[in-house]
Structure formats: C-alpha cells, structure tokens
Design a protein that fits this description.
The chain is mainly alpha-helical. Helix content is about 75%, strand content about 0%.
Amino acid sequence: MTTTTSNITLRKAALLAGIGYILMIGSPIAESIYHNLVDLNNANETVKNIAANTKLVRYGILLYLINFIGDILAAWALYILLKPANKNLSLLAAWLRIIYSVMSLVAVMNLLTVLQLTSHYNYLQALTSEQLKAQVMIALRSFRDDWSFSFIFFGIYLILLGYLAFISKYVSKIVGVCLMIAGAGWLTDSLQPLLFPDVNLSIGMITGFGELIFMFWLFIKGVRLKEQA
C-alpha cells in the first residue's frame, strides 16, 4: 500500500470532502432567506423587507460564505481523493470548483451593497427614493445573474468529477454517472438564459440530487477506502 503525496489518505480525503458538503447546507438556508425577502418584480416590497430585516440579510451572507468555504474544502479534498484516477484532470476539476467559488463570492458581495443602500447613511440622502430602489434592485439582480453564470464552471466541474469517479477503480460507477447528470443539469440551467432567454427551464435542482448521493457515498464507502497503488 502507498500513501498519497499530500500525506492525507483517501479515507481522510473522503471524510474532509463530506464535511465540505455538510458546510454547503449554508446555501439552501440562505436561499430561503433570500426568497422570503426578495421579489425582483416588486421593488417597493423588496426594499421594505430588507430594510426591516437587515440582521437576517447579514445572517444570509454569512451562510453563503460558509457554503463557499465548504466548496473550497471539497475541491481540495476531492482533488486528493480522485488524484489516483488521473492527477491532471483531478487538478483541473479542483481549479474549476475554486473558480466557481470565487465567482460566487464576488456575486454575494452585491448583497453587501444592498445592505449599504438600505442603511441610514447621510450620503444616501443624495438619492431619491426611486433611485435608491433602482440601485437596490440592480444589485440584487446582479447577485442572482452573477451567481447563475458561475454555475457554468460548476456544471463543467461536476461532469469532470463524475468522469473521474467513473474511470476510477474505487468509486461506484453509478456515483460517477449521477455526478455527470448533475453537472449537465447545472450547465443547462446556466446556459439557458444566455442561449434561450425565452425558455423557462430549471432542472439543476432535480439533477443536483446526484451530489447528495455522492455525499452519502463519501461517508458510507469513502471513509473505508484503501490507498491506491
């Protein structure tokens, strides 16, 4: 038996990746907060909701941040886990997930702008009520569109991750197929607004269950893996 060059065993890598996936629960919770407060078709109600719940918005931003920390942890751990299958492709996959995480973090920074615009700073008096609402909605729209765009890289990442799992000799091929399907779903959802803006399509949340299957595999089978020669 041999050990990984990083001195982290495949078992530990699987455990760390699983922990990373658990941290990603932050995003669904933050999304529920977002959808309860924001209506992109109603500026008056949205600004009113955010101004009355700034603490809740701050918690949401923190939850998004926790999610992206989990993404980075998973990117590193899964690179180690799938390196025996193909080192170069595993490294490429890790970088794709990091790119996605950075782009997503930049998108979330729009929410900091929203908080600033809905605070009681003196310089905001230079803006009319309508101008203020417009800037809040632009920032919210930018957050949503920027994050959606970042899923192009995430979709490609999952397809590549699934391929690595599929060709490896120690990860279930079913898991690999599920990850590739999940990636195709996110990629389709991300490209649809750019290529087919008149089509209302959202399948990523359905195909995304492939990642949930992978998370269970990490904790059930991954933590018992043997090192690969």
